[in-house]
Design a protein that fits this description.
about 45% helix; binds 2-{3-[(4-chloropyridin-2-yl)amino]phenoxy}-N-methylacetamide
């Protein structure tokens, strides 16, 4: 209906506006709580849905109460109707406006309160919920084993010494009585820095420093990282861990060495453990011996771990060569000593049944977690 038509029948314009509103408003009407549905249909609405209804309602308000609305047109008409009709017509328009305003306001209120509580619900946090703790880590299996070894030797009166990983030829070779032409000195076997320092190939270097600094008598172990130029395979890694022990005093003999190693292995693998020594050769000890212990798995009858021999080879040892004592400032006429060395990673691989020592250095948490 146009404005000119309605001028003839202004009441019809208001009625038409009313009807149009009713039609469009219908979908919102159910959102207002009433006695049938005290929480209204809104209770099932998501926050997004309620917000989109709110936008649709605002558009509806503009269409029916805004400047371009039929209601605004009928208001403008009030002044133009005949004087005797004006009062009644004015009241009709007024009623109509109040009705539309009030009904929109009801829905708006219901939507606003629903949106508000939905937002509150979304942002709610349960402060009594336990926090998400970062998972606690644990020591590396090599560290656990090193600490067990350290505890055993500390209880036997040994000190633990640490040292540098980059060394001079003197500490890595000369002081250890390793001859100039020895293959270990070759760049094929040892890592050298560009200015001629060696990455230590055994922790004996630490023991030479300790003898120089502390003098004799001395009981110590030197656990640590050592480096050898090997191609990695299941039993070799160019970096591995070693522990060396040294005992220097007056009257130290091979029997002290055997008793100490045997006691260490009994504490490590159980009181029933038997140790045996086989003659060997190292430049830094004389005499020298390698040591084996009875298999911790089968007790010596033979199994997969000990390759059916009943024995597990673990390390090397011997009486410290007089040249080594002398190089470290200890008088071999007064003092003698024994020394031994073993690989911690090899021992870990044996004890944990690893078929590849490289697993210990790949730092794959799925592997490491098993040692928690
Ligand atoms: C092995 C053999 C050994 C030593 C290490 C040593 C240290 C000093 C003086 C004399 Cl300061 N000897 N250490 C002695 C014999 C053997 O290691 O199989 N290691 C994994």
């Amino acid at each position: 209906m146009t404005e000119s038509q309605s001028q003839e029948d202004p009441k019809a314009l208001v009625e038409a506006a009313c009807k149009a509103f009713e039609q469009e408003f219908e979908r919102f009407a159910g959102l207002v709580p009433d006695s049938v549905s005290p929480s209204g249909m809104l209770s099932g609405f998501s926050l997004d849905r309620a917000e989109s209804e709110q936008r649709a309602l605002a558009e509806l308000r503009t269409r029916h109460l805004g400047k371009k609305s039929a209601l605004a047109a009928s208001k403008r008409m009030i002044g133009r109707v005949s004087a005797e009709q004006r009062g009644a017509f004015g009241q009709l328009v007024q009623r109509n406006e109040s009705e539309i305003t009030a009904r929109i306001a009801q829905v708006e209120e219901a939507l606003t309160s629903h949106i508000e509580s939905a937002r509150t619900e979304r942002e709610r946090i349960d402060v009594t919920l336990p926090g998400r703790r970062p998972r606690r880590g644990h020591l590396h299996p090599i560290t656990m084993l090193r600490e067990r070894i350290e505890d055993i030797f500390v209880a036997l009166g040994y000190v633990i010494e640490d040292g540098r990983e980059v060394e001079t030829d003197f500490y890595n070779f000369d002081a250890l009585n390793i001859p100039q032409n020895h293959p270990a000195r070759a760049a094929q076997d040892t890592f050298y820095t560009s200015d001629g320092f060696a990455l230590r190939s055994q922790t004996s270097t630490v023991q030479i420093h300790a003898m120089q600094r502390r003098g004799a008598p001395l009981r110590m172990i030197a656990p640590g990282r050592v480096f050898r130029r090997d191609t990695p395979d299941p039993t070799h890694n160019p970096m591995f861990f070693q522990v060396e022990g040294l005992c220097v005093d007056r009257g130290i003999s091979m029997s002290h060495l055997k008793g100490t190693v045997a006691e260490f292995l009994r504490q490590m693998f159980g009181a029933q453990t038997v140790t045996r020594f086989r003659p060997s050769y190292f430049p830094f000890t004389e005499p020298s011996a390698e040591f084996d212990f009875s298999c911790f798995k089968c007790g010596g009858t033979g199994c997969r771990i000990c390759k059916n021999s009943g024995w597990i080879e673990l390390g090397g040892s011997g009486m410290v060569h007089p040249n080594v004592l002398r190089a470290a400032g200890v008088d071999p006429e007064i003092y003698s000593g024994f020394a031994f060395g073993l690989g911690i990673d090899r021992m870990a691989a044996l004890m944990y049944g690893l078929d590849d020592i490289r697993l210990l250095f790949e730092n794959d948490v799925r592997f490491l977690q098993q040692f928690d």
